[in-house]
């Protein structure tokens, strides 16, 4: 049994590509989600640490300087306080300001960025440090408001609030470094995920490819196809189901073949056994038919003998057709080709059956001789013309036209009858098919057109049927014009 090779490449629309792309998307989404969560946590940690450190340092500085302030500090006292705080900022480089109760905001160093409006409003009544991040000149800043409480009453605000603002540019650079690291780390993760994605897709698709290849082999007739199944997952169950289905189909097909072989053998045997007694019956009925025609018998006897003779001839013809069909089925039909003149063969066919007066022929004067089997071509012509005469009506005219071509000979048989019913047309060459299903008995056996089609195929030609637009059936026979054709089997 021929095995189809499994395709190794991924199709852009195939399941393998979708599995790999899905795997990579999940990997990329996981990497990006992890990077985003890590970035968020790290960013919050960096900013919170900077804020806590700034609040702690400011509280320490203010705690060391506030006891030296008077109970009601003046502007000069507040300016001196902010100057000392600015000088003690160190690397933090903050800008401080102070305000007492509802007074003016006092600064001693370079002007600080404008504080957020919400911070002073909230700090006036607060007792703990407040912090708020804001942007100034497209740079991040942190503003801290530290209410100063008295030592004897720490829960009550003293009215003095110290503000400090410092840049978060260094922290922003740290956050930007985290973003760059996250971006740089996501791409290798996605690329590294491509390898297990390809391996996983290959592993998943291997049984699917095996199933496809096995199904194609079965479609070509290899019903003994089976696939190797391993594992216990759903694909393995599908493979076992396929094997069970294949075994059932193989058994059923073998049973049908055995039954068909027996039926063909039975038909051939019955036809062969009936041939000898039918030959004797035909000879006897021929003699009696002559007596009936001479008028020496009673009218009733003469009519009965005529009926018996007609039915015997029909039965003999049917037996001959069955034997011919059985030879086609057994592959025993052979061609005996000869160089023939199709026009001369057509005239002999019509003369032998006395159809000259009912058939119009259109044959060119010079038709190239073709190497065909004259007996089988005669059978084809007799079946086509006889069928046209039977179904065309008592006064039917049948037209036969011959047209030679470059490498094929075309012969059409047309009648002026009602044509072939649409539901019968696709099955007109099937065995035991009759054009008029309402007629349970007719001169035809239902095998003539099937035998004609088999003889056409035996020659390497074709036989088709259609209805003419103006009415009537048209059969077209195409036979190859080969000068040197040897005998062959179908």
From TrEMBL:
Residues 269-483 form the Histidine kinase domain. It is an enzyme of class 2 (transferase). Keywords: Kinase, Membrane, Phosphoprotein, Transferase, Transmembrane, Transmembrane helix, Two-component regulatory system. Transmembrane segments: none annotated. Signal peptide: none annotated. Its EC number is 2.7.13.3. It holds the Pfam family HisKA. SMART domains: HAMP, HATPase_c, HisKA. PANTHER family: SENSOR HISTIDINE KINASE TRCS, SENSOR HISTIDINE KINASE YKOH. This is histidine kinase. It comes from Streptomyces johnsoniae.
């Amino acid at each position: 049994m021929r095995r189809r090779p499994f395709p190794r490449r991924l199709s852009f629309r195939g399941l393998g590509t979708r599995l790999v792309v899905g795997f990579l998307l999940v990997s990329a989404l996981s990497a990006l989600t992890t990077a985003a969560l890590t970035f968020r946590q790290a960013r919050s940690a960096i900013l919170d640490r900077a804020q806590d450190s700034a609040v702690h340092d400011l509280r320490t500085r203010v705690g060391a300087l506030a006891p030296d302030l008077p109970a009601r500090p003046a502007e000069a006292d507040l300016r001196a306080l902010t100057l000392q705080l600015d000088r003690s900022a160190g690397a933090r480089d903050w800008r401080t300001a102070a305000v007492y109760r509802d007074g003016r905001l006092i600064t001693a160093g370079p002007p600080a960025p404008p504080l957020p409006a919400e911070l002073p409003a909230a700090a006036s009544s607060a007792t703990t440090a407040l912090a708020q991040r804001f942007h100034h000149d497209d740079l991040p800043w942190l503003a801290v408001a530290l209410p100063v409480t008295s030592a004897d009453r720490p829960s009550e605000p003293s009215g003095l609030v110290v503000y400090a603002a410092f840049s978060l540019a260094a922290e922003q650079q740290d956050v930007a470094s985290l973003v760059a690291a996250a971006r740089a780390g996501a791409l290798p993760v996605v690329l590294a995920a491509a390898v297990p994605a390809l391996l996983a897709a290959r592993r998943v698709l291997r049984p699917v490819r095996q199933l496809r290849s096995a199904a194609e082999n079965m479609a070509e007739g290899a019903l003994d196809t089976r696939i190797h199944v391993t594992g216990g997952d759903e694909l393995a169950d599908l493979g076992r189901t396929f094997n069970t289905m294949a075994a059932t189909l193989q058994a059923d097909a073998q049973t049908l073949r055995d039954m068909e072989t027996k039926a063909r053998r039975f038909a051939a045997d019955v036809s062969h056994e009936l041939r000898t007694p039918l030959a004797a019956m035909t000879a006897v009925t021929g003699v009696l038919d002559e007596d009936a025609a001479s008028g020496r018998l009673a009218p009733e006897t003469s009519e009965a003998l005529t009926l018996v003779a007609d039915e015997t001839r029909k039965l003999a013809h049917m037996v001959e057709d069955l034997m011919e069909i059985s030879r086609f089925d057994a592959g025993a039909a052979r061609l005996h080709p000869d160089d023939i003149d199709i026009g001369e063969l057509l005239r002999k066919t019509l003369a032998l059956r006395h159809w000259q007066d009912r058939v119009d022929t259109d044959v060119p004067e010079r038709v190239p001789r073709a190497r065909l089997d004259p007996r089988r071509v005669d059978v084809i012509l007799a079946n086509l013309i006889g069928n046209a005469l039977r179904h065309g009506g008592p006064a039917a005219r049948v037209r036969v036209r011959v047209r030679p071509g470059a490498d094929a000979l075309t012969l059409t048989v047309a009648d002026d009858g009602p044509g072939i019913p649409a539901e019968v047309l696709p099955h007109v060459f099937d065995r035991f098919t009759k054009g008029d299903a309402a007629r349970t008995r007719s001169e035809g056996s239902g095998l003539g057109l099937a035998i004609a089609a088999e003889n056409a195929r035996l020659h390497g030609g074709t036989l088709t049927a259609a209805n003419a637009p103006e009415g009537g059936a048209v059969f077209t026979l195409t036979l190859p014009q080969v000068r040197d054709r040897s005998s062959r089997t179908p």
